[in-house]
């Protein structure tokens, strides 16, 4: 999946975690569910590290003014 030149931000909310993330793309799984590929800098611990993972779309909250329509979309055959 190509990385957008200026990826939009969203807010990831799950369990006891809430953080801003960059959205890299959308994916539709064979069961019809939507997932998003996101990335962020994990600043816990001694050394900040980049992180990326697939998250369910319902864990993301839009940020006003961001355009999510231009993100690439793919079909997933295996679970993220």
Summarize the structure.
This protein has 80 residues and is mainly beta. The chain has strands spanning 9-14, 17-29, 34-42, 49-56, 60-62, 73-76.
Considering the chains and any ligands shown, give keywords for the structure:
80 residues; globular
Structural class: mainly beta
Q: How many beta strands in the DSSP annotation?
A: 6
Evaluate the radius of gyration: 13 Å
Estimated share of beta-strand residues: over 45%
- What are the low-pLDDT stretches, counting only 5+ consecutive residues below 50? none
Can you walk me through this structure?
This protein is mainly β. It is built from no helices and 6 strands. It has strands at 9-14, 17-29, 34-42, 49-56, 60-62, 73-76. Strand 1 (9-14) and strand 2 form a beta hairpin. The relative contact order is 0.33. The model has no long low-confidence stretch (mean pLDDT 89).
Layout of helices and strands:
Blueprint: E1 9-14, E2 17-29, E3 34-42, E4 49-56, E5 60-62, E6 73-76
Parallel strand pairs: 2-6
Antiparallel strand pairs: 1-2, 1-5, 2-3, 3-4
